[in-house]
Amino acid sequence: MTTTLLISILMTLAAAATPILIAALGELVAEKSGVLNLGVEGMMLIGAVSGFAVAVTTGSPALGCLAAMVAAGAASMIFAVLALSLTANQVATGLALTIFGTGISALAGAPFVGLTTPTLGLVFPPSLAADPVLRLVFGHSPLVYIALILTFAVWWFLSRSRAGLILRAIGESDGAAHSIGYPVLKVRYLAVLFGGAMAGLGGAYYSLVLTPMWAERLTAGRGWIAIALVVFASWRPGRLALGAYLFGAVITLELQAKAAGFSAFAPEFLSSLPYLATIVVLAVISVGRAGGNTAAPACLGKPFRASA
């Protein structure tokens, strides 16, 4: 394997892992507060189409990223009102959000099919990215570096800040947190909003960096991988980053096999590899936790009703 090919594979790996990592970080924070939002895929699609539409209209991919976060954050508030204020079933509401996001993104994106938009520029001088070796460090999209910074920021927030401690306390025992005066619903609303914004940013990565174009169901189910990744990482940001790059390696393997014309398996089988890996990982985790030992927040998915 030549150095150029190896660098190309590693660049592809980072590109494949980044949107999953960003979306998963948002879901991790929401779940740490005790909220299970299965609408990540729908919010990613809403972010992808909103970001693309704004970028095409304004010519600014940066504004597109901001619009993606706002649109997906707004969609997450629909979930929050239903699941938190009206105490609807979180699983059913999250699935409904995914269905809604898939449909509304297809409708809103119809006028933009076939169009292209400028991509986000490089953070570092192009001369650094031109070098074959330095390109591995300095040649990525800004969102790749933002994803790594966000990983550290989420770790610090959850483990070192007072606000993070409050959020984790609410996720573990919302009744006890409420009894000592912490605003359970406010914290959960903010956590869900953050999760939506991150899902939107992850979706925008597909339409503004990877392609950059709009196509129906552009995210191809990566939101479900992001949700599974949170479980795989045992709700820990460091493991989440490692897991995202592991799944990125599986996706890269699929792409490289197709590019090389590997014909031992059907293309459909190669496309299913990331999802097969997700199923295997979740199955192994489930077997390992059959005895009831789990790192999941104790109140995850449970509705909160304030007592008098």
TrEMBL record:
<dbReference type="InterPro" id="IPR001851">
    <property type="entry name" value="ABC_transp_permease"/>
</dbReference>
<feature type="transmembrane region" description="Helical">
    <location>
        <begin position="189"/>
        <end position="208"/>
    </location>
</feature>
<feature type="transmembrane region" description="Helical">
    <location>
        <begin position="133"/>
        <end position="158"/>
    </location>
</feature>
<feature type="transmembrane region" description="Helical">
    <location>
        <begin position="91"/>
        <end position="113"/>
    </location>
</feature>
<feature type="transmembrane region" description="Helical">
    <location>
        <begin position="6"/>
        <end position="28"/>
    </location>
</feature>
<keyword id="KW-0812">Transmembrane</keyword>
<keyword id="KW-1003">Cell membrane</keyword>
<feature type="transmembrane region" description="Helical">
    <location>
        <begin position="35"/>
        <end position="55"/>
    </location>
</feature>
<protein>
    <submittedName>
        <fullName>ABC transporter permease</fullName>
    </submittedName>
</protein>
<keyword id="KW-1133">Transmembrane helix</keyword>
<feature type="transmembrane region" description="Helical">
    <location>
        <begin position="61"/>
        <end position="84"/>
    </location>
</feature>
<feature type="transmembrane region" description="Helical">
    <location>
        <begin position="242"/>
        <end position="266"/>
    </location>
</feature>
<feature type="transmembrane region" description="Helical">
    <location>
        <begin position="272"/>
        <end position="292"/>
    </location>
</feature>
<dbReference type="GO" id="GO:0005886">
    <property type="term" value="C:plasma membrane"/>
</dbReference>
<feature type="transmembrane region" description="Helical">
    <location>
        <begin position="214"/>
        <end position="235"/>
    </location>
</feature>
<keyword id="KW-0472">Membrane</keyword>
<dbReference type="GO" id="GO:0022857">
    <property type="term" value="F:transmembrane transporter activity"/>
</dbReference>
<dbReference type="Pfam" id="PF02653">
    <property type="entry name" value="BPD_transp_2"/>
</dbReference>
